[in-house]
Amino acid sequence: MLVSSHPVSLAWVFRPDHVETDHDRAEQHAGKPVHAVGREPDNVGRVEVVLADGARVRAYRHEIILG
């Protein structure tokens, strides 16, 4: 178990799957900090993600990673 007496800040970033056909989504938003993630997935398993700059994208949960 990891124990720290110092404050820890966790940040999430959007890392789009480059295998998809939507390359503009990958180019424009890759590596941006995530502000919020929706709870309910759509019919293909994506959730709404609000990036720190206000952009909204649909993403699979595996595309949101600790960064």
Automatic annotation (TrEMBL):
It comes from the Bacteria. This is Uncharacterized protein. It comes from Micromonospora inaquosa.
